[in-house]
Design a protein that fits this description.
The structure is a single chain. The protein is α/β, with parallel strands linked by helices. Helices cover 49% and strands 14% of the residues. The protein has 19 helices and 14 strands. The strands form 2 sheets. It has a 7-stranded parallel beta sheet, with helices on both faces. A 7-stranded parallel beta sheet has the order 10-11-9-8-12-13-14, with helices on both faces. α7 crosses α8.
Length: 446
């Protein structure tokens, strides 16, 4: 590293260490609504209650939030098939990610919070767990962690990697700090050729373009079946199609309610909203009630046992106040509005909706999923509009245009299926790296 880069990393370490009390305060506030944030807080700073039991080499996988944890689950299962007896260390940054990750653990596996990126916390984390190989999912590149892994000779890979134009511009502005962070990765497996070009432009050692393993995820079959049953029962009862505002973010629900509350669109379809973050369920419910609209919550439907009557007709808005049921919501709905695409937030994953044969209407902001969004548009699995008001009009029109709706439903499913295969390519590449690492370690012992 050049002296300017060493200085930048040192100043970054001082600054992020000084910010540690702010993180503790943020965690306390988040824990009021999501108790998971109060769990094992010392781990955030590299302090652990007990030493992990010895049991051979450890593969570390970092999946920051819920979506990345589900993606990591696909990769972990594929690697277990290729590497018998594989032990996993899973780390996360959010409570929903950690809860999802618990379902992926087997005997001998470990789980912890990703450490706050101070030099001390990072060194304590690596000394405690001693992982043999690390995998960061998608975008999670932290300067202190990358530098510490490089210094210790622990290979750290960025996999299913993506880098949008906005993030690229930010890296260039902080090149003296972020340049070494990308250069010192052991390897990168990118989602698309464009991602690879952007990553290479900041010095990342791209080893291949394997595709997006989110395409290899299969929707929960029980949820799909139950959702289709509920859709059929609801349509027979009311004659109304269902439109979902999926994974919505703050600001979008208010704009959506403003667009439908005083227009014929309110009663033209049955509206369903599923906020992205569970801590906002109550806030969104309050927004609905403040506009004089009736509300029914998913949590008050009966359990998914195949005999659920689902929602009753007496509600203007259904609120999806549950986690882990997006396949259910996409299967109930005929059309989905893509959350985080109507504000400058980059959009959400549209692949799961398409895999459930639910065409997507998205706003102008999909820079986090540029390639998938462009392909979905090209294959007529999705539509793009300028704002929420236009999305509402387009959704109502599509939901009532049966021939076009059926065509887009078929195209959505075809789009999701046609891009599969990334999982095997990525798992093969990483299993090869694991084998090389094991061979090198065996040679060192001779």
């Amino acid at each position: 590293m050049r002296w300017s880069e060493r200085l930048a990393l040192a100043l970054y370490g001082v600054a992020i260490t000084a910010a540690s009390p702010l993180l503790r305060r943020k965690l306390r506030k988040r824990a009021v609504q999501e108790p998971g944030y109060a769990q094992a807080v010392p781990e955030r700073f590299g302090y652990y209650e007990s030493k992990p039991e010895a049991g051979g080499a450890l593969l570390w996988v970092h999946a920051v939030s819920l979506g990345e944890s589900r993606t990591a689950g696909l990769l972990i299962e594929a690697l277990r098939q290729r590497i018998p007896g594989l032990r996993i260390l899973l780390t996360h940054g959010t409570a929903t990610g950690r809860a999802e990750g618990q379902q992926l653990l087997r005997e001998g596996d470990l789980q912890a919070w990703f450490p706050w990126d101070t030099p001390g916390a990072v060194k304590r984390f690596l000394a405690h767990f001693k992982p043999s190989l690390g995998l960061l999912m998608e975008t999670e590149v932290w300067p202190s962690m990358v530098q510490a892994c490089a210094q210790q000779g622990m290979p750290l890979w960025l996999v299913n990697a993506r880098l949008n134009e906005r993030s690229l511009a930010g890296i260039h502005k902080a090149q003296v700090l972020m340049g070494p962070a990308y250069r010192h990765l052991a390897g990168v497996l990118a989602q698309t050729d464009m991602d690879a070009e952007r990553l290479q432009s900041v010095g990342a050692p791209v080893q291949g373009v394997t595709g997006n393993i989110k395409f290899d995820a299969r929707p929960n079959p029980q949820q799909v079946e139950t959702g289709l049953q509920l859709r059929a029962a609801w349509t027979a009862h009311s004659g109304k199609p269902v439109v979902v505002l999926a994974s919505s973010r703050e600001g979008e629900e208010a704009a959506w309610l403003d667009a439908i509350a005083a227009s014929p669109a309110l009663h033209a379809v049955q509206w369903l909203v599923v906020p992205r973050h569970p801590q906002r369920f109550e806030a969104v419910a309050q927004l609905v009630l403040e506009r004089g609209l009736s509300l029914q919550r998913r949590s008050r439907w009966t359990d998914l046992n195949g005999h659920s009557p689902g929602p009753t007709p007496a509600a203007d808005i259904w609120l999806g106040d549950s986690m882990g049921e997006m396949a259910l919501y996409y299967s109930i709905a005929q059309v989905a509005l893509l959350g985080a695409s109507f504000e400058a937030l980059g959009g959400q994953n549209l692949i799961e909706a398409c895999a459930c044969a639910c065409p997507v209407i998205m706003g102008p902001h999909t820079f986090n999923f540029t390639h998938a969004a462009q392909d979905a548009l090209a294959q007529q699995a999705a539509l793009r509009v300028a704002d929420v008001a236009e999305a509402v009009q387009a959704a109502v029109a599509l939901a009532h245009d049966t021939p076009r709706l059926h065509s887009m439903q078929q195209q959505a499913q075809h789009f999701a299926h046609a891009h599969r295969g990334a999982l095997d390519a990525m798992a093969d590449a990483l299993a090869g790296q694991w084998a090389l690492m094991a061979t090198d370690h065996a040679g060192d012992r001779l």
